[in-house]
Structures are given as C-alpha cells and as structure tokens.
Amino acid sequence: MTTRKGVHSSGTRPVAHAYQPDRMYARYLYQMRHTHPHRLPVPRTSPRYRPTALLRGARITATTLWHCGIRAPYRADFRRMATAALRHGQVEGMLWAAIAGHHLITYAQEALADRTEKTFYADTMPEPTPSLPQ
Description:
By secondary structure, the chain is an all-alpha fold. It has one domain (8-37, 47-112). It is 63% helix and 0% strand. The protein has helices at residues 4-18, 21-34, 51-71, 75-87, 91-112.
C-alpha cells in the first residue's frame, strides 16, 4: 500500500507539468480551434442583452483581464493565448480559458508550495451514508 507521503510526492510532477501556463493555454487554444466550432449554438434570448447582464459581463471581462493579463506572473502566456483566441473571434472561449486557467494555475502553485492537497487521497475511507428506503 502506498503511503500518504508517497502519493503526495508522486503527485507533484504531474501537477507541475499539466498546469504550466504555456502548456495549459496551448491546450485551451486547441480546444477553441477544434471543438468549439462544433458546439451546438446557444439560442439568443432577450435576458442575455438586458443592461444588468451586459454590465455583469463587462465587469467579469474587466476583472479577468486585470487579474490574468496585467497582475499575473504568467501574463505573457495569457496574452499570447488571448491574442490568438481573439484573432479567431473566440471571446467566450478566451474568457473561459482565462478563468479556468487562473483557477488551475493557482491550485498548482498552492499544491507545489504545500498550501493545499496535491492529490485527493485520504488515509481512511469515510463511513458510507445509509441509503434511503425505497
């Protein structure tokens, strides 16, 4: 049986490799170019164009660009991805990649600095919850 320490040390290399900003943004660009064009179209509904929805979208966009494009240490990688995505009209994909990417990069940095779990490994299994009678 592998010990908790063994699992943690074996989890470091994949986390560091998979969540490097340049590699991750390259994967997101591939998705935007090859899978996003084949998605089903989202129906354009009037609630999407209400002033509150537009302001919320503008705030999310501005916050994302501020955190990923200006403040982040990986901003050069983000800017390369964002430029390529916007060149192909992938605004939604760029924002999705920025938000998801920021979350995963932050997770990887915290995991590598031992501030969070590298793996989801528990020493003991939790007690199963009794099922409801049917």
